[in-house]
Amino acid sequence: MEIQQVEGSLVCTQRVPGLHHVHLRVLRDARGKRVVATDPVGASPGNWVFVVSGSAARYAMGDARILTDLTVGGIIDHWEPDT
Amino acid sequence: MEIQQVEGSLVCTQRVPGLHHVHLRVLRDARGKRVVATDPVGASPGNWVFVVSGSAARYAMGDARILTDLTVGGIIDHWEPDT
Amino acid sequence: MEIQQVEGSLVCTQRVPGLHHVHLRVLRDARGKRVVATDPVGASPGNWVFVVSGSAARYAMGDARILTDLTVGGIIDHWEPDT
Amino acid sequence: MEIQQVEGSLVCTQRVPGLHHVHLRVLRDARGKRVVATDPVGASPGNWVFVVSGSAARYAMGDARILTDLTVGGIIDHWEPDT
Amino acid sequence: MEIQQVEGSLVCTQRVPGLHHVHLRVLRDARGKRVVATDPVGASPGNWVFVVSGSAARYAMGDARILTDLTVGGIIDHWEPDT
């Protein structure tokens, strides 16, 4: 699982069916690259989290048909980002 | 999910069976690299979108047997590309 | 789907079972890196193609048990490679 | 499978359901990048291990529904890290 | 499929169940990065091979429950490594 930091939420009105009621977070990795993840945990901006990719991302949402390839798996309590 | 910008459509007459009626978009990431994605949303050139990869890309098309590993998941309303 | 250019065919006599009658192509991406793909379309050296990765690569071969993680999905008619 | 070195364990109290009783390890690759993996083997800090990614990571945990995309597959007895 | 060169075998006594009787090879790519793969073909050190990743790696072993994400698919007879 990769380690990312929460930056904010995504404003996105036109989506594929099945994502209407899912929270989407914008994350940044240590290099500053932004990605989008589904979030069943409820992370806040500034939180460091670990994210699950691939088909496991769908299992984490409780429904393997959910359209996601990246899901927040947990909020890290103590962490020192890569330097 | 990665963040990409729509550049145009792909002209491709010789394809594997199962892709004849699927719209293919050419996208570019922040570094300028071009990739090809299926698009059930109807994105236009210039739009910033997020794309879903892996087996989730097939679920997003409504048929897990569709030959794709990248699908447009939504059009982003407000976005600031990586710099 | 990634965009690649066909370079040639692969000479490979010792293979795992299930690949004996499958055509294998050597492709190059824009950076010059060579990879190997199964080809149900019949691409020729010099053709620009898009390739499908992951489990979708197996569906594209018409048999999900085929040993491949990369399949030629179509030959691109008009294309401008990354510069 | 990638080769990684164990750095420590992850302190993470807010997690998705299904990860409550799974040990999470922090690993580092040869370039120093840290990732998070589930560990059914019991590796210790300093150990060099090989890790399995994707859906195989879930099979390695004995339950394909476990939320992981990276699992420690074995502890390497003799190894010379990349230089 | 990626192209790799066989370097040797892996000495690894503590493993997850299901890998006890599987041969593990250490491979190197053109950049010198080492990875670990299961080998049903019987490649020797110095051989150039192509490797299959993801869930196809498990199908290549004849048992989709085998813990692997990388399997040697074939030994390349003639090959010129990237320069």
UniProtKB/TrEMBL annotation, chains A, B, C, D, E:
Spell out the GO cellular component terms annotated for this protein, sorted alphabetically and separated by semicolons: bacterial microcompartment
InterPro entries xref list: CsoS4B (IPR014077), EutN_CcmL (IPR004992), EutN_CcmL_sf (IPR036677)
Task: Cite the entry's keywords alphabetically.
Answer: Bacterial microcompartment
The main place the protein resides is other
Localization of this protein: Bacterial microcompartment
So which domain of life are we looking at? Answer: Bacteria
Specify whether Membrane is a keyword of the entry: no
Q: What name does UniProt use for this protein?
A: Carboxysome shell protein
